[in-house]
Amino acid sequence: MGDRPNYITPAGYKALRVEYDALYGDERPKLLETIAWAAGNGDRSENGDYIYGRKRLREIDRRINFLSKRMEKAQVVDPAAQPDKARVYFGATVTLADEEDCERVITIVGEDEMDAGAGRVSWSSPIARAVRGAAIGDVRSVPLPAGSCEYEVVAIAYPEA
Fold first, then answer.
1. Which pTM value belongs to this model?
2. Are 152 and 97 members of one domain?
3. Residue 57: is its pLDDT beyond 80?
4. Looking at the DSSP assignment, which residues form a beta bridge with residue 92?
């Protein structure tokens, strides 16, 4: 990630916070109880509850550490507050038409909330970089592994405040 900003929508930040709180406040304490109980049962070398619990605890701690760093560096950007809604910027839902007039709808979101299957693409992805700053009617070339593809911006929408 380096020095790049970690832009995120308010909903995306909330999802990170909910996951963090669930892991730190709920799952981790229960797991610590299980590990303490298993440790009290004697031989730890063949104690499945103890061994699995320690492994799971390391996974949870790693995820908690990752989430805390991502939230610390997050720059929450509310797409509804975008002053120029006639152009494509972070948080925009954009309808694109390719050369065969097949339409594709994407929403430009942060790296922590992207889901290509749902049309949520990272603001740093090739397609988002290509259409960033475009207005309705603009044609942009998107570099793809199989060659570049031309997309026309058909519609731009932002969430309501």
1. 0.83
2. yes
3. yes
4. none
Instruction: Name the H helices within the chain.
Output: 10-22, 28-39, 48-73, 126-131
Sequence letter at residue 90: F
142 within a domain of the structure (yes/no): yes
Q: What is the number of residues in the chain?
A: 161
Q: Are residues 95 and 61 in the same domain?
A: no
Query: With 0-12 CB in 10 A as exposed, 13-18 as middle and 19+ as buried, what is 111?
Result: middle
Q: Is residue 1 in a domain? A: no
DSSP for residue 46: T
Q: Which of 27, 48, 76 is the last residue of a domain?
A: 76
Given this model, what pLDDT does residue 22 score?
97
Question: What is the distance between the terminal CA atoms of the chain, rounded to a whole angstrom?
Answer: 30
- pLDDT tens track for 69-101: 999 999 999 999 989 899 999 999 999 999 898
Let me know: does 135 contact 86? Beta carbons within 8 Å: yes
